[in-house]
What does this fold into?
Amino acid sequence: MPLLSPQISFQNPQQVAEFILCHYSSIGGEYNRAIPLCGKVLTNTPNGITFNDLLEDAFSTRNLKLLKELESFLNSPKGKILKNSEILSKEVKALIAYLNGDVEKFKNLAVEIFRSGLAPQIILQLAAKEVNFPQDWELSAWLLFYIHEKNPNDEKITQMLRGTLFSAPVLGKEEEAEHLLQRFIEIDPRPEYYRWLGGYLLASKKYDKALKVLEEGYKRYPSDRKLGSLLSYAYFVKGDILKSFYIFGSEKSPQSDFEENVELFALLYTPRGRELLAEKIADLFTDNPSSLEKMLYITHLTGWDNAILTFGRALEKALTYPQEEDIPYLTLYWLTELRKEKKLKPDEEKLINNLLEEYGDNPLLLLVKSYYETLKGNYKKALSFLKRVDDNRLAPVFLPGYFALKFYYQYNWNDKVLKSLTLRDIFKLLNYLYPLSPQQADLLAEKYLELNPQSNSYGVVIDTFFRLGGLSLAAKYSRRAIQKFPQNPDFLNVYAYTLLLLRGKDAAPQAIELLKKALKLSPKNGAYLDSLGWAYYLMGNFAIAEKYLKEALKIAPKDAVLNYHVGALLLGEGKPCEAVNYLKTSLKRLYTLTNEPEPGIINRVKKLLKEAQKNCKAP
It folds into this structure.
């Protein structure tokens, strides 16, 4: 790498002489003479030779002697007066660590350098080469931040950065994410950083801090519609309804701009909280019906089940009698409720029948009736309703329910449809088909995987069945995935853990064998360590279980399932008071998730928490 900078400007002959002497001395290996002269140039001449030139030269030639001379100088009184001497010193230490093979020390120093708001090119390149997500979560975020700064209009990079930041709760790094976003704003107050921090604080229920951040951002960027939307929501949850709807009503943005708003609604509320929110929204509807309509339409687009149920109930409460334009929102609500509860309330069933009398050809009402009658076993009647839907064009959000019924009855079903389905499509389709018939859902998965035998296709099918409570099917396909993809540790883990849920202690020896293979492939994966710890817990080997669970806890200290497992272990060890804290953390985390990470976990955690609290109070 060249030592000379391509652009050099000097203010007087003295600087020229210092520059030449610095350059000449460094080439000759006279570092004790060169470094102070280079420091003077760095202080006086922005475009002259800099320490970074020397650093790059030293690193490219693996010259540890020069690096150590630089380190010594920067620690001296003369070195400490240089601009950015502290960061320069860390750069030198980082490069020395890297050349000595201490990659972890290099990464830690790289993070400290990036926190300062600087991104030296050589450190950036080396960090990108060595980063390992999610273990190096903060380093990953900083790398993406600096890449985003250079490419602010690249949507893919923006989404990668956002995704990394919003993975923090899963990794137990909520506080770190909050501080990181605040630092991003300090370095470069871009509107998306305000939105992300505001949204993150709202999701963490830190409403006062969120309001302050969003007000600051909206003041700086008053034309940013997403900021306005989030600020409106922040006012809403703080109870300032007039301000909320003043901003919400002034936003003439496309509906897709409100997605983050709906995401927050879906994440923030427990089932009881959603009921209370539905009542509050219903009360507001009479004053500002268009605002609720916008929110419902977004719910319709985003497909968050919790949000759909919230707004659907609000709409039911608010409407004296629905009009035809309300039917799409109500349909989405009814279908979601049928998928989850497999029944409708008597008043809802009566309302559908009354609406059919008035709007007899509405395909959405016919779709609801077909799905409901299928659940009740009235197959002939259900098929007659389904046939009447055929001649109508349905919006994409209703197609999974429609195709699930067509597959169930093998009515005008064309297997070519399967070839065109995306992973998201098959996920939605199975979600509608499984409540109708687990056997038919199994058949659909078989056919889909024959046409799409890739590992990610297996992953979606397994995850869908697991979350739907179809553990036998999740085990079936994860076992098959292990055979097809033996080097994929995720399949080993999910199969082992599913066996533990299905057969408990009896499956533990087989699960342990599988999980040890997974950990050989990925030694520091918190999920695998957790599963292994849980297997030993079920066997009654608490000492070994504690070892693995504590190791996993260091990686993901606020993970809902892991805290449940630790709480159960402590309760088994006769430490109920310690167990209470972990079980409370688990329940708190579970209430922020859109779906249970494993079937029935909320009820299990509640039961254990009640037992732990009772035993903790006992003398």
